Amino acid sequence: MDQVTSLVEALVGHRLASVTRLAWHQPGEPVELVKSNVGPVHLVFDGGRGLLVDGRSDWTLRCTETAPGDEAWLATYDYDWDGARWLPRDASAEAPFGAVIGKSLTDWAPVLNEVNELVGIELEFEGERVNLRLWEGELTT
Questions:
Q1: Which of 22, 39, 40, 66 is surrounded by the fewest CB atoms within 10 Å?
Q2: What's the number of domains the chain is made of?
Q3: Residues with Cβ < 8 Å from 59, sequence gap 6 or more?
Q4: Type and span of the H or E element at 133
């Protein structure tokens, strides 16, 4: 939890520049049917510093810092499972991110489960809130 606190606290005061979202895509499934509100999220702030938010196999939240221009985090999701794979997309204009692009991160709060494990974060951008929470092991908005 201390690591997440320091990562997110360092981003307070910075503007959200872009958002990449990953979605699991089955072979032959139309891309339009992919759930847009489920999957790992990469938030990039002014200056290029990023925060990758995803779920762990134990259904707790993982937050990882990324450096400006670093796309090595995508390698974790670059695999094929019987033809299914993760597809990244620009989610900057999608809800709930479209309402906060260009706004500064002003506050945040951890979301803990009943045994004090991190399962989400609430981010506040100039009065607008974005909730990133795990539901059944999947990151949702």
A1: 66
A2: 1
A3: 119, 134, 136, 137
A4: strand 128-135
